Amino acid sequence: MAVNGPKPPTNWYQVNWRQVTRRVKNLRYRIFRATQEGDYKRVRSLQKLMLRSYANRLLSVRRVTQDNAGKNTAGVDKVLVNPPSARSQLVDSLRGSSPWHSQPARRIYIPKANGKQRPLGSPTIRDWAYQAMVKSALEPEWESKFEGSSYRFRPGLSCHDALSKLYLLCCPHRKSPGCLTPIFKAASSI
């Protein structure tokens, strides 16, 4: 097999998803750690590596075409990527294109309760995949810079986390086990 020759086409059925996820997670952790250490030259280098990563491409296409709630929504190009062969072709087409130029979003108007309409933009599947690739490269850097008490628009955190943190801070006897209010005790006994 030639080392620097043309790459074989992607076979969606033979992808080891555990290994792909581990590689992307490892790169994200390295970006996070380099940002905490203040080594921004290494951060940029790792982010470029993440953008060129085959594992990142695979995981981004999987998130957009299988895991996303809007996977059956076509963009302006009216293309849906449902069969695994189409997903493989999308991964391979993302490989060679470096200058990313997004296509215009498809504009749909949704009626609101007050009678007005709200515009909704739906990008193409290819642009969604690019956005997912860039998100996985940029998110670890910014997550390391956020305060620990910041809960808004962060992955894995919700309003309930903020409320539980507030409760622990406001509770005068939070060190003792009897700190729970009767509401929390009733909910835990159900």
Report the β-strand fraction as a percent range: 5-15%
Helical proportion, percent range? 40-55%
Q: Quickly give the structural class.
A: mainly alpha
For the CA atoms, what is the radius of gyration?
22 Å
- Distance N terminus to C terminus? 61 Å
- Average pLDDT confidence is 82
Report the count of strand segments: 2
Spans with pLDDT under 50 lasting ≥5 residues? 182-190
Total domains: 2
| SSE string | HHHHEEHHH
Bulk shape: globular
Number of distinct helices: 7
Largest sheet: 2 strands, antiparallel
- Order of the strands making up the biggest sheet: 1-2
What's the topology here?
Layout: H1 17-37, H2 40-52, H3 54-67, H4 84-96, E1 106-111, E2 117-122, H5 125-145, H6 159-170, H7 182-189
Antiparallel strand pairs: 1-2
Can you give keywords for this protein?
single chain; 190 residues; mainly alpha; 2 domains; two-stranded antiparallel sheet; 7 helices; 6% strand; globular
Would you give an account of this structure?
The protein has 190 residues and is mainly α. It contains seven helices and two strands, in the order ααααββααα. The protein has helices at 17-37, 40-52, 54-67, 84-96, 125-145, 159-170, 182-189; strands at 106-111, 117-122. A two-stranded antiparallel ribbon has the order 1-2. β1 and β2 (117-122) form a beta hairpin.
Summarize the structure.
With 190 residues, this protein is mainly α. The chain has helices at 17-37, 40-52, 54-67, 84-96, 125-145, 159-170, 182-189; strands spanning 106-111, 117-122. A two-stranded antiparallel sheet has the order 1-2.
